[in-house]
Specification:
Layout: H1 10-23, E1 37-42, H2 54-72, E2 76-78, E3 80-83, H3 88-97, H4 101-118, E4 124-130, H5 134-149, E5 153-163, E6 168-170, E7 188-197, H6 203-209, H7 217-227, E8 229-238, E9 245-250, E10 261-264, H8 270-273, H9 281-293, H10 296-301, E11 309-317, E12 324-329, E13 341-344, H11 350-359, E14 367-368, E15 384-385, H12 396-409, E16 413-419, E17 424-425, E18 438-441, E19 445-448, H13 478-481, E20 482-484, E21 491-494, H14 508-511, H15 524-530, E22 535-539, H16 545-559, E23 572-575, E24 578-579, H17 596-603, H18 605-614, E25 622-623, H19 626-641, H20 654-672, H21 676-692, H22 698-708, H23 713-722, E26 746-753, E27 756-764, H24 769-778, H25 780-786, E28 791-797, E29 801-806
Helix pairs in contact: 1-23, 17-18, 18-19, 20-21, 20-22, 21-22, 22-23
The protein binds one RNA strand of 87 nucleotides through α7, β9, β13, α11 and β25.
RNA sequence: GCCGGUAUGGUGGAAUUGGUAGACACGAUGGAUUCAAAAUCCAUUGCCGUUAAAAGCGUGUCGGUUCGAGUCCGACUACCGGUACCA
C-alpha cells in the first residue's frame, strides 16, 4: 500500500477487466441452469456508421445495472445484444459511396461491438443476432410464410405514401405530417400493389394483453390510443327507392334523431354504384379528383375549412324517424375508417356542426344542456335526451343502451366495435431488407416459397439504386427474379419487394434464447426455460410501433403453438432523452452531439456510466452537461484514494453502521425503481462520511464496492482485487441491510409556531406526545413567541415536530 | 384542437403518507497546499437584510382547503412529447 497512485488509471484498469470479463465469458447466460432465470432486454441498435450515441448508453445502462445486480442476487441472467441492421441509412450510404451494404454493415457492427465492450456493458456477446444474417432472416421469412399460411397476409392495391427523394414507400407512421420520416421530403400518394399483414385481426387481443404489461401509464395509454378501440353501433340507412342501405358506424347511436344529413368519403363505392341516378355526377367527379390530389399537408391546413358536394338524386331514410335526409360527399370522412360513411349529427358533433353551418343544413338538438346556436354540444355526462320520441328523458348512457336494443329488434343495425389501427403495410421497394418469400407463376398465381427452400437469400449485387419506376433494385437481377414455380415447375418470377425494417425486430428477443438453431426459430425447451422477457427497456418512440408489432408476432406464434407465452414482455420501461447542452435534440446539424467514446477516453467508462445515471431522473429528458462529468470522476477518485486507510476489521465502523444499512436499503430500492440518480447521491453521501473518518474497516469498504459495482464495475473489481480477493465481484452476493440497525436513537425535533419553524432540539427517539409537547414549551425561543399570547392548539407529530398555534 | 408530462437556487436536479424546501452534484467566492499551476483539502453559497444576527420573502401565475401545501383542490400560463377531421 505504500506506492499508491492518487487517481485511478482508467485506461489501464478498465481494459484489464474488460479483457477478463469478455475473454472468459463471465456474462454468458447458461441454458437450463438451476438458478432462477432473469431475462433483461434492451432494444438492439441500428448499427449506423457514426457508432454509438450517448442515447444508446443511457438506454442500456438501466438494465446493465439491473443485470449486474441480478447476477449478484443469484439469478441466471440473459442480457443479450444484437443488431437491427437492415434498412435505409445503410442502403443510401451504399449508393453514395458504392460500398456494398454487407461490407458497411459488417464494419459498423464491428465498431459497435468494440464500443459496447469499452463501455463495459455486461452483454452476453456469444448470443449476438444480426437481422441481416441469412441464418437469421431465414426465420423472419419463415414467420412470414406462417402468417401467410394462416391468412394473415394479403395483397392489395392501395394508395401508399411515396417519398420521391428516398424512392421508397412509407407507412403512415413514417410519413406523418406529409413529410418523409427519413429525409423530410414531401410525400406523394401513389397506387401500388402492397403486401399487408392483418394485424387488425389481433387488435382486441393486443389491447387486452396490455393489462398484463407492467409499465407506466404513459406507455400503456400510447399503445391503447394507437390501437384506438371505439365502441358503438353500425346502422343501416336505406337509400330511398332502392334496396340498398348506407352503412354507417357511430359511437353515438343515441343521437340518431338529430341526424340531418349523411356524409360519405370521396372514395365511397356508392358513387359508382348509383352513378346512373346521380344528377350532378360531373361535379362529384371533380370533387373526387380534387380530394385525391390534396396533399396530406393541405388536408391538415384546411382541416377547419370543410368542403363537400351534395349528391343530387340520392336520399337516405333515417331508419328510426323515417325522415328523408340528403347525402353529401366530403373529404372530412375517411374511407379507411369505419364504413367510410357517417350519419351527421350537427347539433352534437363539432365537425358536422361546421359542415352544417357552411352549407346551411338543419341542426336539430336532441340533447339538452348546450347552446347549439353557438357550437356543437358534445358532452356525454350530463345531457338529457329531447326530440327523440323513444328515448326522451334518458341520459346519454341509458339512451345508447336502449336505442341499441331497439335497432337490434328492428334489424336496422347492431352493436359494433371499430379500431383505428390499420393493417400493416409490409413491403419496401428496396434492396437492403429481407426478400419476401413469394413466387409468381402464370398458372398457379401467388405461390409461397416452400419452407425447405428458405432462406431466399439477397443476391450480392453491384448496383443498389432503385429503378425510377419505384421498383426494387432486385427487379433488375435476372438470376434472382427468374425461378421455377414450386408447384408446377414452370418458369416463374420472384417477388422483388423486401420487408420493412420492423420485420427483423419483431421477434429478435426469441432468437436470443437459441441464436444458432438451424432447425427452428428457437428450440421449445429453450423457449420454455427463458420464458418471458422479465424487463424490457427502450425508447418512448418505439412504444407504439415496435412494441405492438412484436407483441403481434409473438401472439401469433403463441396461437400456432410455437412460443409458450401469449405476451412476450412482463415489464416495460423507457428512458428519457439526453438533449444537447443547448437543450435541443442532439443532431449533427446543430453541432451539439456528444460522443460517448470521447468521454470514455478522457474520463473512463465508469465515470461515463456514473455520470449518465446521475444526470437526472432516468425517465426524464435532460440536457447534457459536460462539467458534471468531472463530478462523477471526482466521486470515483475519492473512493480510490480511500484505499490506504482501510484496516483489516471485518465489522462495520460503529459510527457508520446505521448509515451503511440505510444506504444499502436506499440504493437497493432506488435501483429497482430506476431512480439511479438518487441511488448514486446516497452513495456519495456515504463516501463523504467515510472520508471524515481517519480509518475505515474492510467491511465498510467492501459493502460500498458491492453496491457501487453495478454502476462502476471496473473500479470496484480493481479495488476488490487489491483487497486480496481471488474471485471476481460478478457473482459475489449482493449486500442485505438489517432493519433493526436503521433505528435512530436521537432525533431532531422541529418546533414551530403557526407552522413556522422557530427552533430545533435533539431529543430521544420515540418519546410520548405529551413529553414532546412539554419539551417544546420548555424551549426559550418558543417561550419568547408564546409570551402574552393564547395557545389555541398544539399539534404533535411523533418523532418529527410540534406545532403550536397561537393568537 | 385533444391526450399525457413538466415548471423548484447561477446550473443539473432532491424532498416517504401534506410535517425542517433546496439532499447530491456542478459552478462561483474565500482560504490552505505549491516557486507557480493543475490536482487535492477546508469554508461559504436561494433571495433580501445585517458588523454578525434576528426578522422578512421564496417551489410558473392567481385563488382555495389545512395548525401546516413543492406535495391536495379549482382556474390559468409557458415549454416538451404523443396524436390529428377516427365518426
Amino acid at each position: 500500500m505504500s506506492e499508491f497512485i492518487p487517481s485511478f488509471e482508467h485506461k489501464k484498469i478498465e481494459k484489464k477487466w474488460q479483457d477478463e470479463w469478455y475473454n472468459f465469458d463471465y456474462f454468458k447466460a447458461i441454458d437450463f441452469s438451476d438458478k432462477e432465470k432473469y431475462y433483461s432486454l434492451v432494444e438492439f441498435p441500428y448499427p449506423s456508421g457514426i457508432g454509438m450515441h450517448i442515447g444508446h448508453i443511457r438506454a442500456y445502462l438501466s438494465l446493465e445495472v439491473i443485470s449486474r445486480k441480478r447476477r449478484m442476487e443469484g439469478y441466471n441472467v440473459l442480457f443479450p445484444i444484437g443488431f437491427d441492421a437492415f434498412g435505409l441509412p445503410t442502403e443510401n450510404y451504399a449508393i453514395q459511396t458504392q460500398i456494398h451494404p454487407r461490407k458497411i454493415t459488417d464494419n459498423n457492427i464491428k465498431i459497435f461491438k468494440k464500443q459496447l465492450k469499452s463501455a463495459g456493458i455486461s452483454f452476453d456477446f456469444s448470443r449476438i443476432v444480426d437481422t441481416t444474417d441469412p441464418d437469421y432472416y431465414r426465420w423472419t421469412q419463415w414467420i412470414f410464410l406462417k402468417l401467410y399460411e394462416h391468412n394473415l397476409v394479403f395483397k392489395d392495391k392501395a394508395y401508399v405514401n411515396y417519398c420521391p427523394s428516398c424512392q421508397v414507400i412509407l407507412s403512415n407512421e413514417e410519413s406523418q405530417g406529409g413529410k418523409c420520416d427519413r429525409c423530410g421530403f414531401d410525400v406523394v400518394q401513389m397506387e401500388k400493389d402492397v403486401w399487408f399483414l392483418k394485424i387488425t385481426e389481433y387488435a382486441n387481443s393486443l389491447l387486452e394483453g396490455l393489462k398484463d404489461l407492467e409499465s407506466n401509464s404513459r406507455i400503456r395509454s400510447e399503445q391503447e390510443k394507437w390501437i384506438g378501440k371505439s365502441v358503438g353501433a353500425n346502422l343501416h340507412f336505406p337509400i330511398k327507392d332502392s334496396d340498398k342501405n348506407l352503412e354507417v358506424f357511430t359511437t353515438r347511436p343515441d343521437t340518431i334523431y338529430g341526424a340531418t344529413f349523411m356524409v360519405i368519403a370521396p372514395e365511397h363505392p356508392y358513387i359508382k354504384e348509383f352513378k346512373s341516378r346521380i344528377k350532378n355526377l360531373d361535379e362529384i367527379k371533380k370533387y373526387q379528383e380534387q380530394a385525391k390530389h390534396k396533399t396530406e399537408f393541405e388536408r391538415l391546413e384546411l382541416a377547419k375549412d370543410k368542403t363537400g358536394v351534395k349528391i343530387k338524386g340520392l336520399k337516405a331514410i333515417n331508419p328510426i324517424s323515417k325522415a328523408e335526409i340528403p347525402i353529401f360527399i366530403s373529404d372530412y370522412v375517411m374511407i379507411t375508417y369505419g364504413t367510410g360513411a357517417i350519419m351527421a349529427v350537427p347539433a352534437h358533433d363539432t365537425r358536422d356542426y361546421e359542415f352544417a353551418k357552411k352549407y346551411n343544413l338543419d341542426i336539430v338538438e336532441v340533447i339538452k344542456g348546450g347552446n347549439i346556436e353557438k357550437e356543437a354540444y358534445t358532452d356525454t355526462e350530463t345531457g338529457e335526451l329531447i326530440n327523440s320520441p323513444v328515448i326522451n328523458g334518458l341520459s346519454v348512457k341509458d339512451a345508447i343502451d336502449k336505442i341499441i336494443k331497439i335497432i337490434k329488434k328492428e334489424k336496422i343495425g347492431e352493436e359494433a366495435i371499430q379500431f383505428r389501427m390499420k393493417d400493416w403495410a409490409f413491403n419496401r421497394q428496396r434492396y437492403w431488407g429481407e426478400p419476401i418469400p413469394i413466387i409468381y407463376c402464370e398458372d398457379c398465381g401467388i405461390v409461397p416459397v416452400p419452407y425447405d427452400d428458405l432462406p431466399v437469400k439477397l443476391p450480392y449485387i453491384e448496383k443498389f439504386t432503385p429503378s425510377s419506376t419505384g421498383e426494387s433494385p432486385l427487379a433488375n437481377i435476372d438470376e434472382f427474379v427468374n425461378c421455377k414455380c414450386p408447384k408446377c415447375g414452370k418458369d416463374a418470377k420472384r417477388e422483388t419487394d423486401t420487408m420493412p425494417q420492423w420485420a427483423g425486430s419483431s421477434w429478435y428477443f426469441l432468437r436470443y434464447m437459441d441464436p444458432t438453431n438451424n432447425k427452428e426459430i428457437a428450440s421449445k425447451e429453450k423457449l420454455d426455460y427463458w420464458g418471458k422477457v422479465d424487463w424490457y427497456n427502450g425508447g418512448m418512440e418505439h412504444v407504439t410501433r415496435h412494441l405492438i408489432y412484436s407483441r403481434f408476432w409473438n401472439q401469433f406464434l403463441f396461437d400456432i403453438g410455437v412460443v409458450p407465452n401469449k405476451e412476450p414482455y412482463k415489464k416495460r420501461t423507457a428512458q428519457g432523452m439526453i438533449l444537447g447542452a443547448d437543450n435541443e435534440k442532439m443532431s449533427k446539424s446543430r453541432g451539439n452531439v456528444v460522443n460517448p467514446m470521447e468521454i470514455i477516453d478522457e474520463y473512463g467508462a465508469d465515470t461515463l456510466r456514473t455520470f449518465v445515471l446521475f444526470l437526472s431522473d432516468y425517465e426524464m429528458s435532460t440536457p447534457w452537461n459536460e462539467d458534471g462529468v468531472k463530478g462523477a470522476r471526482r466521486f470515483l477518485d475519492k473512493i480510490w484514494r480511500m484505499f490506504p486507510k482501510v484496516n483489516q476489521s471485518t465489522t462495520y465502523t460503529l459510527d457508520l453502521e446505521r448509515d451503511i444499512h440505510l444506504t444499502i436499503k436506499g440504493v437497493d430500492e432506488d435501483i429497482e425503481n430506476i431512480k439511479f440518480n438518487t441511488a448514486i447521491a446516497k452513495m456519495m453521501e456515504l463516501v463523504n462520511l467515510y472520508n471524515k473518518q481517519t480509518e475505515i474497516t474492510k467491511a465498510d469498504y467492501e459493502v460500498l464496492l458491492k453496491i457501487l459495482y453495478p454502476i462502476a464495475p471496473h473500479l470496484c473489481e480493481e479495488l476488490w482485487r487489491k483487497l486480496g480477493h481471488k474471485e471476481l465481484l460478478v457473482f459475489e452476493s449482493y449486500p442485505n441491510y438489517n432493519p433493526k440497525k436503521l433505528v435512530k436513537e436521537e432525533i431532531e425535533l422541529v418546533l414551530s409556531i403557526n407552522g413556522k419553524v422557530r427552533d430545533k432540539v435533539v431529543v430521544e427517539n420515540n418519546l410520548s406526545k405529551d413529553k414532546l409537547k412539554e419539551i417544546a414549551l420548555e424551549s426559550e425561543k418558543i417561550q419568547g413567541y408564546i409570551k402574552g399570547k393564547e395557545i389555541i392548539k398544539t399539534i404533535v407529530v411523533p418523532n418529527k415536530l410540534v406545532n403550536i398555534v397561537v393568537k
